[in-house]
Amino acid sequence: MSRKSERLxxxxxxxxxxxxxxxxxxxxxxxxxxxxxxxxxxxxxERDKDExxxxxxxxxxxxxxxxxxxxxxxxxxxxxxxxDHSGFTTNEIAYMSLAAQVWKEEALSEIAQHAMRKLAxxxxxxxxxxxxAIAPVLINAPKFLNEIIDCIxxxxxxxxxxxDSEMKTQSRxxxxxxxxxxxxxxxxxxxxxxxxxxxxxxxxxxxxxVSLSKGSKTYEIPEKYISSTESEENxxxxxxxxxxxxxxxxxxxxxxxxxxxAEDFDAVDVPYSSENExxxxxxxxxxxxxxxxxxxxxxxxxxxLKNVVMxxx
Length: 313
Prior knowledge:
By secondary structure, the protein is an alpha+beta fold. The chain folds into three domains: 3-134, no CATH class; 145-232, Roll (SH3 type barrels); 238-312, no CATH class. Helices cover 37% and strands 26% of the residues. The strands form three sheets. The chain has a five-stranded antiparallel beta sheet with strand order 7-6-5-4-8. Helix 10 crosses helix 11 (295-312). The longest helix has 18 residues, at 295-312.
Protein backbone atom coordinates (compact mmCIF):
# COMPACT_ATOMS: atom_id res chain seq x y z
CA MET A 1 0.00 0.00 0.00
CA SER A 2 1.36 3.47 -0.88
CA ARG A 3 1.96 5.98 1.93
CA LYS A 4 -0.78 8.19 0.55
CA SER A 5 -3.34 5.36 0.47
CA GLU A 6 -2.44 4.26 4.00
CA ARG A 7 -2.74 7.85 5.24
CA LEU A 8 -6.18 8.23 3.64
CA UNK A 9 -7.41 4.97 5.16
CA UNK A 10 -6.10 5.91 8.61
CA UNK A 11 -7.74 9.33 8.32
CA UNK A 12 -11.12 7.72 7.54
CA UNK A 13 -10.79 5.34 10.49
CA UNK A 14 -9.82 8.12 12.88
CA UNK A 15 -12.66 10.44 11.86
CA UNK A 16 -15.17 7.59 11.88
CA UNK A 17 -14.15 6.07 15.21
CA UNK A 18 -13.97 9.25 17.28
CA UNK A 19 -16.97 10.29 19.39
CA UNK A 20 -15.98 13.95 19.22
CA UNK A 21 -14.54 16.37 16.67
CA UNK A 22 -10.77 16.04 16.11
CA UNK A 23 -8.61 19.11 15.59
CA UNK A 24 -6.00 19.31 12.86
CA UNK A 25 -3.23 19.19 15.46
CA UNK A 26 -4.62 15.89 16.82
CA UNK A 27 -4.87 14.48 13.30
CA UNK A 28 -1.33 15.55 12.38
CA UNK A 29 0.06 14.21 15.66
CA UNK A 30 -1.71 10.85 15.57
CA UNK A 31 -2.00 9.78 11.93
CA UNK A 32 1.20 8.63 10.29
CA UNK A 33 2.04 10.30 7.01
CA UNK A 34 1.46 13.94 7.92
CA UNK A 35 4.96 15.37 8.10
CA UNK A 36 7.01 18.41 7.17
CA UNK A 37 6.20 22.03 7.88
CA UNK A 38 2.83 23.24 9.12
CA UNK A 39 2.08 24.59 5.65
CA UNK A 40 2.88 21.30 3.91
CA UNK A 41 0.73 19.31 6.38
CA UNK A 42 -2.12 21.77 5.82
CA UNK A 43 -1.88 21.26 2.05
CA UNK A 44 -1.77 17.47 2.45
CA UNK A 45 -4.84 17.55 4.68
CA GLU A 46 -6.82 19.73 2.27
CA ARG A 47 -5.97 17.40 -0.64
CA ASP A 48 -6.94 14.36 1.44
CA LYS A 49 -10.31 15.89 2.34
CA ASP A 50 -11.01 16.67 -1.32
CA GLU A 51 -10.14 13.12 -2.40
CA UNK A 52 -12.29 11.50 0.28
CA UNK A 53 -15.23 13.74 -0.59
CA UNK A 54 -14.76 12.81 -4.27
CA UNK A 55 -15.18 9.18 -3.19
CA UNK A 56 -18.46 10.04 -1.49
CA UNK A 57 -17.25 10.24 2.14
CA UNK A 58 -18.90 13.13 3.96
CA UNK A 59 -16.58 14.91 6.44
CA UNK A 60 -18.40 17.02 9.02
CA UNK A 61 -16.75 20.28 10.13
CA UNK A 62 -17.69 22.23 13.26
CA UNK A 63 -16.32 24.77 15.70
CA UNK A 64 -15.24 23.07 18.94
CA UNK A 65 -16.49 25.87 21.16
CA UNK A 66 -19.83 27.59 20.37
CA UNK A 67 -18.46 30.87 21.76
CA UNK A 68 -15.22 30.80 19.76
CA UNK A 69 -15.04 29.78 16.12
CA UNK A 70 -11.25 29.93 15.80
CA UNK A 71 -10.69 26.18 16.42
CA UNK A 72 -12.29 23.74 13.97
CA UNK A 73 -12.83 20.02 14.40
CA UNK A 74 -13.54 17.19 11.97
CA UNK A 75 -15.31 13.84 12.09
CA UNK A 76 -17.30 11.37 9.97
CA UNK A 77 -20.72 10.43 11.35
CA UNK A 78 -21.26 6.68 11.32
CA UNK A 79 -24.88 7.07 10.20
CA UNK A 80 -23.67 9.03 7.15
CA UNK A 81 -20.90 6.55 6.40
CA UNK A 82 -23.20 3.50 6.57
CA UNK A 83 -25.37 3.78 3.49
CA ASP A 84 -28.94 2.76 2.90
CA HIS A 85 -28.87 -0.46 0.85
CA SER A 86 -32.23 0.41 -0.73
CA GLY A 87 -30.83 3.18 -2.92
CA PHE A 88 -27.13 3.94 -3.52
CA THR A 89 -26.05 7.02 -5.40
CA THR A 90 -23.46 6.62 -8.13
CA ASN A 91 -20.68 7.91 -5.86
CA GLU A 92 -21.73 5.54 -3.09
CA ILE A 93 -21.68 2.56 -5.45
CA ALA A 94 -18.20 3.48 -6.64
CA TYR A 95 -16.90 3.97 -3.10
CA MET A 96 -18.59 0.90 -1.61
CA SER A 97 -17.36 -1.43 -4.32
CA LEU A 98 -13.82 -0.10 -3.97
CA ALA A 99 -13.15 0.65 -0.32
CA ALA A 100 -15.23 -1.98 1.41
CA GLN A 101 -13.57 -4.74 -0.61
CA VAL A 102 -10.03 -3.38 -0.29
CA TRP A 103 -9.84 -3.30 3.49
CA LYS A 104 -12.08 -6.00 4.85
CA GLU A 105 -10.57 -9.45 4.49
CA GLU A 106 -7.62 -9.73 6.90
CA ALA A 107 -8.60 -7.76 9.97
CA LEU A 108 -5.80 -9.20 12.14
CA SER A 109 -2.94 -8.07 9.89
CA GLU A 110 -0.04 -6.06 11.30
CA ILE A 111 -1.12 -2.89 9.45
CA ALA A 112 -4.66 -3.10 10.81
CA GLN A 113 -3.52 -3.79 14.37
CA HIS A 114 -1.10 -0.85 14.22
CA ALA A 115 -3.84 1.50 13.03
CA MET A 116 -6.26 0.31 15.70
CA ARG A 117 -3.71 0.74 18.50
CA LYS A 118 -3.11 4.33 17.40
CA LEU A 119 -6.84 4.98 17.40
CA ALA A 120 -7.17 3.90 21.01
CA UNK A 121 -5.52 7.12 22.19
CA UNK A 122 -7.65 9.51 20.13
CA UNK A 123 -10.88 9.62 22.08
CA UNK A 124 -12.86 7.74 24.68
CA UNK A 125 -14.85 5.63 24.47
CA UNK A 126 -14.03 3.87 21.16
CA UNK A 127 -15.37 0.37 20.54
CA UNK A 128 -12.63 -0.80 18.18
CA UNK A 129 -14.17 -4.26 17.84
CA UNK A 130 -17.13 -2.79 15.97
CA UNK A 131 -15.24 -1.41 12.97
CA UNK A 132 -13.41 -4.36 11.35
CA ALA A 133 -14.93 -3.71 7.94
CA ILE A 134 -12.68 -0.67 7.42
CA ALA A 135 -9.43 -2.15 8.70
CA PRO A 136 -6.77 -0.89 6.25
CA VAL A 137 -5.50 -3.97 4.45
CA LEU A 138 -4.59 -4.75 0.88
CA ILE A 139 -4.65 -8.46 0.10
CA ASN A 140 -2.78 -9.28 -3.08
CA ALA A 141 -4.21 -6.14 -4.62
CA PRO A 142 -2.98 -5.30 -8.14
CA LYS A 143 -0.16 -2.79 -8.46
CA PHE A 144 -2.44 -0.37 -10.31
CA LEU A 145 -4.77 0.21 -7.33
CA ASN A 146 -4.07 3.95 -7.22
CA GLU A 147 -4.95 4.28 -10.90
CA ILE A 148 -8.28 2.53 -10.29
CA ILE A 149 -9.02 4.83 -7.34
CA ASP A 150 -8.20 7.82 -9.51
CA CYS A 151 -10.32 6.74 -12.48
CA ILE A 152 -13.38 6.01 -10.30
CA UNK A 153 -13.16 9.18 -8.21
CA UNK A 154 -12.34 11.48 -11.15
CA UNK A 155 -14.29 9.56 -13.84
CA UNK A 156 -11.25 9.02 -16.05
CA UNK A 157 -11.22 6.34 -18.77
CA UNK A 158 -8.67 3.55 -18.28
CA UNK A 159 -6.76 1.80 -21.08
CA UNK A 160 -4.88 -1.52 -20.85
CA UNK A 161 -3.85 -4.70 -22.67
CA UNK A 162 -6.11 -7.62 -21.70
CA UNK A 163 -5.64 -11.37 -22.12
CA ASP A 164 -9.02 -12.82 -23.08
CA SER A 165 -10.41 -16.34 -22.57
CA GLU A 166 -8.81 -17.46 -25.85
CA MET A 167 -5.40 -16.28 -24.60
CA LYS A 168 -5.31 -13.43 -27.11
CA THR A 169 -4.30 -9.91 -26.11
CA GLN A 170 -6.39 -6.91 -27.02
CA SER A 171 -6.28 -3.23 -26.16
CA ARG A 172 -9.31 -2.22 -24.09
CA UNK A 173 -10.72 1.14 -23.04
CA UNK A 174 -13.10 1.07 -20.08
CA UNK A 175 -15.10 3.54 -18.01
CA UNK A 176 -14.72 1.85 -14.62
CA UNK A 177 -17.83 1.68 -12.42
CA UNK A 178 -16.71 -0.63 -9.60
CA UNK A 179 -13.71 -2.54 -8.29
CA UNK A 180 -13.96 -5.61 -6.05
CA UNK A 181 -12.54 -8.94 -4.87
CA UNK A 182 -14.38 -12.24 -4.85
CA UNK A 183 -13.11 -15.60 -3.58
CA UNK A 184 -9.49 -14.43 -3.62
CA UNK A 185 -9.52 -12.81 -7.09
CA UNK A 186 -9.67 -9.13 -8.01
CA UNK A 187 -11.94 -7.63 -10.67
CA UNK A 188 -13.25 -4.34 -11.96
CA UNK A 189 -16.39 -3.67 -13.95
CA UNK A 190 -17.48 -0.94 -16.30
CA UNK A 191 -18.40 0.11 -19.81
CA UNK A 192 -16.13 -1.46 -22.45
CA UNK A 193 -16.01 1.33 -25.03
CA UNK A 194 -14.98 -0.98 -27.87
CA UNK A 195 -17.82 -3.46 -27.28
CA UNK A 196 -20.27 -0.78 -26.06
CA UNK A 197 -21.43 -2.97 -23.16
CA UNK A 198 -20.74 -3.43 -19.46
CA UNK A 199 -18.04 -6.06 -18.89
CA UNK A 200 -16.13 -7.43 -15.90
CA UNK A 201 -12.34 -7.82 -16.11
CA UNK A 202 -10.07 -10.04 -14.01
CA UNK A 203 -7.09 -8.02 -12.84
CA UNK A 204 -4.48 -10.74 -13.20
CA UNK A 205 -5.26 -10.95 -16.94
CA UNK A 206 -4.02 -7.41 -17.52
CA UNK A 207 -0.67 -7.38 -19.30
CA UNK A 208 1.73 -4.61 -18.29
CA UNK A 209 0.68 -1.24 -16.92
CA VAL A 210 -2.57 0.68 -17.25
CA SER A 211 -2.98 4.28 -18.41
CA LEU A 212 -5.64 6.89 -17.69
CA SER A 213 -7.12 9.56 -19.91
CA LYS A 214 -5.85 13.07 -19.23
CA GLY A 215 -9.26 14.64 -18.79
CA SER A 216 -11.54 14.11 -15.81
CA LYS A 217 -15.32 13.79 -15.58
CA THR A 218 -15.33 12.07 -18.99
CA TYR A 219 -18.22 9.78 -17.98
CA GLU A 220 -20.85 9.20 -15.31
CA ILE A 221 -21.85 5.97 -13.56
CA PRO A 222 -25.46 5.13 -14.54
CA GLU A 223 -27.97 5.53 -11.75
CA LYS A 224 -29.36 2.03 -12.36
CA TYR A 225 -25.95 0.34 -12.37
CA ILE A 226 -25.74 -2.60 -9.92
CA SER A 227 -22.22 -3.21 -8.66
CA SER A 228 -20.83 -6.67 -9.27
CA THR A 229 -19.87 -6.79 -5.60
CA GLU A 230 -23.49 -6.46 -4.57
CA SER A 231 -24.72 -9.18 -6.94
CA GLU A 232 -21.96 -11.59 -5.91
CA GLU A 233 -22.51 -11.09 -2.19
CA ASN A 234 -26.20 -11.77 -2.57
CA UNK A 235 -25.34 -15.34 -3.65
CA UNK A 236 -24.99 -17.22 -0.37
CA UNK A 237 -24.07 -20.90 -0.40
CA UNK A 238 -23.55 -21.79 3.28
CA UNK A 239 -24.76 -20.85 6.75
CA UNK A 240 -22.53 -20.53 9.81
CA UNK A 241 -23.92 -21.22 13.27
CA UNK A 242 -22.27 -18.90 15.78
CA UNK A 243 -22.47 -17.94 19.44
CA UNK A 244 -22.12 -14.15 19.72
CA UNK A 245 -21.66 -12.38 23.05
CA UNK A 246 -24.58 -10.18 24.08
CA UNK A 247 -24.10 -6.62 22.81
CA UNK A 248 -21.27 -7.56 20.43
CA UNK A 249 -20.79 -8.50 16.78
CA UNK A 250 -23.06 -5.97 15.08
CA UNK A 251 -21.65 -6.83 11.61
CA UNK A 252 -22.50 -10.50 12.13
CA UNK A 253 -25.92 -9.68 13.55
CA UNK A 254 -26.70 -7.43 10.57
CA UNK A 255 -26.06 -10.36 8.21
CA UNK A 256 -27.91 -12.92 10.29
CA UNK A 257 -30.84 -14.90 8.96
CA UNK A 258 -31.77 -16.02 12.48
CA UNK A 259 -30.97 -14.85 16.02
CA UNK A 260 -31.97 -16.73 19.18
CA UNK A 261 -31.32 -14.63 22.28
CA ALA A 262 -29.88 -16.09 25.48
CA GLU A 263 -28.33 -14.84 28.71
CA ASP A 264 -24.65 -14.32 27.77
CA PHE A 265 -24.34 -15.48 24.15
CA ASP A 266 -26.94 -15.36 21.38
CA ALA A 267 -27.20 -18.12 18.77
CA VAL A 268 -26.72 -16.43 15.37
CA ASP A 269 -27.08 -18.02 11.91
CA VAL A 270 -25.05 -16.13 9.28
CA PRO A 271 -25.33 -16.92 5.53
CA TYR A 272 -22.05 -16.58 3.63
CA SER A 273 -20.36 -17.37 0.33
CA SER A 274 -16.72 -16.52 1.13
CA GLU A 275 -15.13 -18.47 3.99
CA ASN A 276 -12.13 -16.12 4.07
CA GLU A 277 -14.36 -13.09 4.55
CA UNK A 278 -16.37 -14.64 7.37
CA UNK A 279 -13.22 -16.11 8.95
CA UNK A 280 -11.60 -12.68 9.23
CA UNK A 281 -14.76 -11.17 10.68
CA UNK A 282 -15.00 -13.94 13.30
CA UNK A 283 -11.31 -13.66 14.21
CA UNK A 284 -11.65 -9.90 14.65
CA UNK A 285 -14.12 -10.41 17.49
CA UNK A 286 -11.79 -12.78 19.39
CA UNK A 287 -13.61 -14.50 22.28
CA UNK A 288 -16.85 -12.59 21.63
CA UNK A 289 -17.68 -15.10 18.86
CA UNK A 290 -17.58 -18.90 18.86
CA UNK A 291 -18.12 -21.06 15.77
CA UNK A 292 -20.41 -24.07 16.21
CA UNK A 293 -20.73 -25.10 12.56
CA UNK A 294 -19.69 -25.85 9.91
CA UNK A 295 -16.71 -27.79 11.20
CA UNK A 296 -14.46 -26.61 8.37
CA UNK A 297 -14.95 -22.98 9.44
CA UNK A 298 -14.36 -23.87 13.11
CA UNK A 299 -11.14 -25.69 12.14
CA UNK A 300 -10.00 -22.65 10.12
CA UNK A 301 -10.54 -20.41 13.15
CA UNK A 302 -8.48 -22.74 15.36
CA UNK A 303 -5.71 -22.97 12.76
CA UNK A 304 -5.57 -19.18 12.33
CA LEU A 305 -5.38 -18.58 16.08
CA LYS A 306 -2.56 -21.14 16.39
CA ASN A 307 -0.69 -19.31 13.62
CA VAL A 308 -1.11 -16.00 15.49
CA VAL A 309 0.31 -17.60 18.65
CA MET A 310 3.27 -19.03 16.70
CA UNK A 311 4.08 -15.68 15.11
CA UNK A 312 3.48 -13.38 18.08
CA UNK A 313 3.88 -15.75 21.03
